[in-house]
Design a protein that fits this description.
By secondary structure, this protein is α/β, with parallel strands linked by helices. Helix content is 34%, strand content 14%. The protein folds into two domains: 17-35 and 258-351, Aspartate Aminotransferase, domain 1, CATH 3.90.1150; 38-255, 3-Layer(aba) Sandwich (Aspartate Aminotransferase, domain 2), CATH 3.40.640. It has ten helices and 13 strands. The strands form four sheets. It has a five-stranded mixed β-sheet with strand order 2-8-7-6-5. Helix 1 packs antiparallel against helix 7 (244-255) and helix 3 crosses helix 6. Bound molecules: 4'-deoxy-4'-aminopyridoxal-5'-phosphate. 4'-deoxy-4'-aminopyridoxal-5'-phosphate is lined by residues 83-85, 109, 149, 153, 179, 181, 205, 207, 213, 218.
């Protein structure tokens, strides 16, 4: 026996590569290619360095209040954290303690099983169908909780809200987490269902549609009792999760709604154009409602395309996992970036 027999050993999540090179087209981690709202830059320029001496507001009230107003809920219904990863990890720890297995799709955000392993939560991966669709019947079973990304990642596919509602309604004794990291790109949010169901927790992020992955801001909205439990866990872990710049700039980002809508609109327009271009080149993909497209080619293996693109300085994401190892997840960049991608693919596929 040595000291490491008592260690909590985990196999960590592997985030997408953040290359040191800057001369690349980075379409591998679903970041937004456009800058944050102009108000964020103004806030940054006006930040008072002297305030850094002081701890931030442990309640993160400014950000919580502006989110509550934006989403028309009570501030007691809002929980914020260091990216939605932090919020989700905290929610797993807080809500999934029954000892019964939690359920999530076999193809989904690959952090879910990592958190389940970390917190020793039993889990079952529920297979999506051949078209990567969720079937609600599969979630009508005894369980210790449910997590569904909607739209899903990395498939990009959205389940109809009616289906999500049936899952929530059939599981009133479990917490159902709906991870809406990508909902702003044409998805349908489960937030209105909060009026009907107290077992729903909706999680969103500033990392994609608000162009602030680097600031690490995520949030959850649920009923007051649920958020109270989350806060108790957070205050038993780290009182000051949100730093001062994140609080100030996050608040500024929410305030500029026109810019937010314009940015999402641009991404959606580019995505729809690129869907047509990819189809014409022999790719097929689930109908994305996100800021990425999960594409497979009729002839050339995904791994080969991934390597060829990388050699060209175009980074996309490849998952060497069962059922999805012939797909590329391509983040939607600017029109110019996507034109470079399409031009390269056209040339490559003409000779391979
Ligand atoms: N959920 C899903 C489905 C995601 O794809 C991501 C991005 N990796 C996250 C949550 C976490 O994003 P963040 O921590 O940047 O908010």
């Amino acid at each position: 026996m040595s000291w490491d027999s008592g260690v909590r050993k985990v196999v960590p999540y592997t985030p997408g590569e953040q290359p040191k090179r800057t001369d690349i087209i980075k379409l591998n981690t679903n970041e937004c290619p456009y800058p944050p709202a102009p108000g964020v830059e103004e806030k940054l320029a006006a930040m008072d360095m002297d305030s850094f001496r002081l701890y931030p507001d442990p309640e993160a009230s400014a950000l919580v209040n502006v989110l509550a107003e934006y989403y028309q809920v009570d501030p007691e219904q809002v929980f914020v954290g260091i990216g939605s990863d932090d919020v989700l990890a905290m929610a797993f720890m807080t809500f999934f303690n029954s000892g019964k297995p939690i359920l999530f799709p076999d193809i989904t955000y690959s952090f879910y099983d990592v958190w389940a392993e970390l917190y020793r939560i039993p889990y079952q991966r529920v297979p999506l169908d051949a078209e990567f669709r969720i079937h609600k019947e599969d979630y009508i079973a005894d369980n210790g909780g449910i997590v569904i990304a909607n739209p899903n990642a990395p498939t990009g596919l959205m389940a109809p809200l009616s289906e999500i509602e049936e899952i929530i309604a059939a599981n009133r004794d479990s917490v159902v987490i709906v991870d809406e990291a990508y909902v702003d790109f044409g998805g349908e949010s489960a937030l209105p269902l909060l009026k009907k169901y107290d077992n729903l927790l909706v999680v969103q992020t500033f990392s994609k549609s608000r162009s602030m992955a680097g600031m690490r801001i995520g949030f959850a909205i649920g009923n007051q009792r649920m958020i109270g439990y989350l806060k108790d866990a957070k205050f038993s872990f780290n009182s000051y999760t949100m730093n001062r710049p994140s609080l100030e700039m996050g608040t500024a980002a929410v305030t500029d709604d026109a810019y937010f809508k314009e940015t999402c609109g641009k991404i959606i327009a580019t995505r729809e154009r690129i869907k047509k271009e990819l189809s014409a080149l022999g790719f097929s993909f689930p109908d994305s409602r996100t800021n990425f497209i999960f594409a497979t080619h009729e002839r050339v293996p995904a791994r080969e395309l991934f390597e060829a693109l990388k050699a060209e300085g175009i980074f996309v994401r490849y998952f060497d996992k069962p059922r999805i190892d012939n797909y590329l997840r391509i983040t939607i960049g600017t029109d110019a970036q996507m034109d470079r991608l399409i031009a390269f693919l056209k040339d490559y596929l003409a000779v391979h």
